[in-house]
Structures
1.
Amino acid sequence: MSEASGPRTLRIEGAFRLAGGRSLEGVDVAYETFGTLSPNGDNAVLVCHALSGDAHVATGPGLDGATCPGWWDSLVGPGLAIDTARYFVVCANVLGGCSGTTGPGSIDPETGNRWGLRFPLVTIEDMVDVEARLLDALGIERLLAVVGGSMGGMQALAWARRYPERTDAVIAAATTSRLGAQAIAFNEVGRSAIIADPRFAGGDYAPDAQPADGLAIARMVGHITYLSQDGMREKFGRRLRDREDHAFDFVSEFEVESYLAYQGRRFVERFDADTYLYMTKAMDYFDWQPPAGTDMPRFLVTSFTSDWLFPTAQAREIVRALLSRGAELTFAEIDSPYGHDAFLLETEQQGALIGAFLERILADRNRCAERRVS
C-alpha cells in the first residue's frame, strides 16, 4: 500500500556550516514521504524540486490535512514511473526555501526577527548536505536513486559529486552543469525587479506586505524562459483578449500579456521574494564537475528539443564529462514543444524512460543482494 506522510519538519541541531564559510545554528527541514520504506531500506528515491517547487511532489495531505495534488503528479504516484507502491519517495523543501525549511523568511534566533537579507547565501551543495542529514535521520544509508529536473537536476548532479557512495543512480532532467551568461542575465533581471520594488525595504518587508510587483515581474521574466517559441505561438499567437481591436493604451490586451500577468499574481500568493533572490543566486553559483573514483552512480540524463534555457547542448556537456570519468549512463533527447517546462509536462516518453531505468537499477540491486546472501 502506498502511503503519504503529509508535511513534516525535522530539526537538525547544532552548527550547520555552509559553503560560503558561515554557519547556521540549527536548521529546520520541511519534507514529505510517499510510499513505504522496505524492511532493509533499499527502495528509497529522493526527488529534488526546482526553483519554485516544494516538498509536495505527489498527491497527499496538505498543510490543512486535505488531500491536494503534487507538482509532479504525472510521474510520482502509484503505478507511475516513480511508483510509490514500490518505492519510498522522499522530497524536501530546500535550504533557503519558503515552504517550511530554514530560509530568509525564518526567524533569526539571535534577533527574534525575520532573517531577510542577513540570511547567509546558500549553494546547491548546501541544499544537498541538508538532504543528506534528513536521510540520516530517516535511517536511509543508501538511495536507489536521486531524481530532479532543472534546479532539482542540479541537486541530483551535486549528490553524485558529494555523496557518490550513497546512491545507486542519478536521474537529471532538463538541467545543466553550470549556467551560461544568458541564464545568469535572466536571473539578474528578476532579482533587480524585486530589489527595485519600493516595498522591498532592503529585504525586511513584512510577510503580508512583500514586494509583490517586483516578484510578479521576476516570475513573468522567468516564465518566458520556461516556454518555447513554437509553444507560445501556438498557444497565444497575436490574439487579443476580450476585445476585437487594439486599445491604443498601455493595458494588457494580448492574450500572452494576460497570461504572464496571471502567472505573476499566482506566484506572489505562494512564494517569497527574498527566497527568489537566494534560489536564483544558488543556481548562478553552481559549477559542477563529475565525480571521480570507482564508486560512481549510474546516470540517466535527459533533455528536451525545445528547451532553450537548458538546451540539449548543455546536457551533452554533462554526458561528455561523465563519459570521461568512465560513468555508466543513458542519455535521451525527448521531442517536445513545451520548452523547459517539458520536464513537468511530458509524461509518456519521460515516464517510460524513468520507469524502465529505475526498474533496472532495482533489479541489479536485488541481484547483488542475492549474490551476497548465497
2.
Amino acid sequence: MRLLAIIGLLAIGNGIWAQQRWTEPIPYGDMDQWQVRYIKESKLLGGQTKTLYAIAPTDTVRENKAYVSADGNPWGCSATYAKFMGIETAMEGSVVPERRGYGYCCRMSNVLSHVNIGDIYAMVSGTIYMGQALEPLGITAKSKPYTAIDFGTPFTSHPTALMLDYKAKIADADSLITTEKNKPQVVAGHDCAVIFIYLQYRWEDPETGQIYARRVGTAYERICESIPEWVNNHEIPIRWGNITQSPDYQSYEGLNQRAMMTRNSKGKMVRIEEVGWSIDEPTHIVMYISSSDAGVFRAYEGNTLWVDNLRFVYEKTEQ
C-alpha cells in the first residue's frame, strides 16, 4: 500500500499524460463510389466500347470526354482515355472496383495493352494517386507518362500514419515485361507493389514559374510477395523531417526519385523539384498506390494489389 501511495504522489507531481489517437477517412477512400466511363474507340481500331472506372461520385458517362475530378475528390488513376493522332482509345482493366462484403474495394493490376494503330503496346500498372491525369492522353504520354499527370493535392494536416486494408498477388519471378521500345520485351527484375506518401512544402519561383518543394513527411512500403488474405487496419508510419539518417531509410525514399509534374500559377506543367528536407508545415500531399514499382512501362503482367478503407491516423499527447 505504501508503494502504491508513493507512485500516486509521483504521478500527481509529474502530471498524468494521456495519448489521444483517432482516424479520419480519406475522401472516397472507402472505395464504395465509382464513376463508370464508356469510351468508344475509333473505327480504325474496330469501334469497340471500352470501360473505364474512376474513384468518384457514383455516375455513368457515355461520352468520349476528359475526366476531371470534382467535389473534393483527390483521386486519379491509370485507367485513362487516350487520343493518338486523332485515334481514340482507352487503357482499360488496370483499375477496377471489386465487390467486398456489402461494398467495394479497389483492384489494381498490371495489364499489357495493345493499340492496333501503329502496333503500339503499353505495359500499364494499376495505379491510383492523388492528382489529375490530363486527358485525353496524347503521344507524349507514351514516352513520358508523368508529364501528363498533375501530382498532388493541397494538404496541411499532420497525420502519423496511413491506415488501410489490403491484400496482394505478387509473382515469385525474376523477370518483367517492358514496352519502353514499344514491342514487349522480357528483362530481368522482381516486381513489387508499392504504397507511398510524400508530404511537401511547395512554392513557385515568380520569375521562372518553376515549382520547388521541401520534403516534410515520408511514408513508403513495398509489397514483394503475395498476401492472399485481407490484412485489415494495416498502418504505414509517416516519418517527419529528414529521414536519411534513420536505420530503416532506403535510397528509393529519397528526393526526386520520381519525375513528378504539376501546374504552376500560369497553368503550365512543370517538374516538382525537391530541394531538401524540412519540418515546415506541409502545403501538399502526394499519395501513390500501384501494383508495380518496377519503373515506367515495365512490370510483371498480372501482379495485383487490392486496397480498401483508406484513412489517416492522428495522435495527440495531452496532460
